[in-house]
Specification:
Elements (H helix, E strand, L loop, with lengths): L2 H27 L16 E10 L4 E11 L6 E3 L11 E3 L5 H36 L1
Antiparallel strand pairs: 1-2, 3-4
Length: 135
C-alpha cells in the first residue's frame, strides 16, 4: 500500500471518530433536558452509524459516517409533581441518555482516534526515513 493512502485512510477514520465524539458531547450536554410542558418530549439521544465507502481517488474502502440518528428507546420517568412538564400523575419524562453508556462510547471513540493517529505518526516516520535514504 502507498504510504499516502495510509495517511488518507487514517485521516478519514479520525474524521468519523470526531463526529462521534461531537454527538456524544451533545448527548451528555443534554442529559437533563426535559420538555417544558406536560406531554412535551425531552431530548432524545443521538447515535452515529458508520459505513464502509469505496473512495475512488484512493481505490480503497474507507470509513465514513452513514447517518446521525436517534435512539428510539423509551424515555424514563421521574416523579416530580412540581416540574412544569409533569403529567397528571406527577411524572416527568426524562431523556433516554445514560451517562455511563456515553462515557464508554467516548472512551471507545477516543481509542479509535488514537489508533488512527498512531498510524499517521508511524507512516510519517517511514516517509521521513525514506527521504533520508534518498539524500
Amino acid at each position: 500500500m502507498d504510504l499516502t493512502k495510509a495517511l488518507s485512510i487514517s485521516a478519514r477514520g479520525m474524521d468519523a471518530q470526531t463526529t462521534r465524539l461531537r454527538v456524544i458531547a451533545e448527548n451528555l450536554a443534554n442529559q437533563d433536558t426535559t420538555g417544558d410542558a406536560p406531554g412535551a418530549s425531552p431530548y432524545r439521544r443521538k447515535t452515529v452509524t458508520f459505513e464502509d465507502k469505496m473512495d475512488a481517488t484512493l481505490g480503497e474502502d474507507t470509513v465514513r459516517v452513514k447517518n446521525v440518528g436517534t435512539d428510539k428507546a423509551a424515555f424514563p420517568k421521574r416523579y416530580d409533581p412540581s416540574h412544569p412538564a409533569a403529567d397528571a400523575q406527577g411524572y416527568v419524562q426524562t431523556p433516554n441518555v445514560n451517562s455511563f453508556v456515553e462515557v464508554m462510547d467516548m472512551r471507545e471513540a477516543q481509542r479509535s482516534f488514537s489508533a488512527n493517529l498512531n498510524v499517521m505518526e508511524v507512516t510519517r516516520t517511514m516517509l521521513t526515513r525514506a527521504i533520508d535514504l534518498l539524500k
